[in-house]
Design goal:
Blueprint: E1 5-8, H1 14-25, E2 30-32, H2 45-50, E3 58-61, E4 66-68, H3 70-78, H4 84-88, H5 92-120, H6 128-149, H7 163-171, H8 173-179, H9 182-186, H10 189-200, H11 204-208
Parallel strand pairs: 1-2
Antiparallel strand pairs: 1-3, 3-4
Helix pairs in contact: 1-3, 1-7, 5-6, 5-7, 5-8, 6-10
The structure holds glutathione.
Family: Belongs to the GST superfamily.
GO cellular component, one term: cytoplasm
Domain GST N-terminal: 3-85
Amino acid sequence: MAPLGTIYTYTPSPRLVKAQAAANLNGQELVIAPDFQFGKTNKTEEYLSKFPTGKVPAFEGADGTNLIESDAIAQYCAESGPAAGQLMGSTPSQRAQIRQWICFAQGEILDNVQTLALWRMKIYPYNEASEKSAMTKLTRALGVLETYLKGRTWLVDGEKISMADITVASSLIWGFSMIIDAEMRQKHPTLMAWYERVIEVDGVKEAFGPQNYIEKRQDTPE
Ligand SMILES: N[C@@H](CCC(=O)N[C@@H](CS)C(=O)NCC(=O)O)C(=O)O
C-alpha cells in the first residue's frame, strides 16, 4: 500500500507520535520527510505556500491534502482506515467526548508542559511567574485525570483506546521526562496505570517508543 502521506517535523516530537500511532492502528504508513531541517525548510516559500504557519508538524497527503496543526493531522490519520470509528468515535456523544479530551490535552496539558519544558531544554529563558503558573495548571490537570480515570480503562466509554487516550498521553511525554518526577507520579497512581496501559497498546508502543521518566526535576536554572 502507498504511504498515506509525508510529515514534515523534527523528531522525536510529541506532536508527531499521535499521528504515527493513529496511522499504525489503521495499518497505514507515514513518511517522515528525510531532509527536513527545522528553522530552515519550514521558512522556505515552497513550505509556506503549502503550510501557512511555517510550523511543524505539517502533513502532505498522497491525496493532495495539506494540513497544519497536529490534532488535524492525527485526525486525518485516525479517519483513514478501519479503526476510524474506534479512534474518532462512532456516535455524536463519543465524538464530542474525544474532541473534549483533545482540547484538554492541548489547552490544559501541552501548553503548560511546553512552558515548563522549554527552559529546561535551554530553548527559552527561565521565568519564575510562568513556571509557577504553568506548574499550578499542570498539577490541576493531572488531578482531573487522576479522579476521572478511577474505575475507567480508557478516557471515553468503550472497550478500546481512542484518540482521546493517544492525544492526552502524547501531551504528557515531555511532562514525564522533564517535570512530573517520582514524587509527583506517586500522587497519581491511576493516571500512571492508565498511561502505562496506553503506551503498551500495539501500534501506540511503536510510535511512542520507551518513555523516559525523570526521578527528580530541576526546579531552577543552575
Ligand atoms: N498547535 C500547533 C503548534 C505547532 C508549533 O507550535 N510548532 C512549533 C514547534 S513545537 C513550531 O513549529 N515553531 C516554529 C515557529 O514558531 O516558527 C500544533 O499542534 O501543531
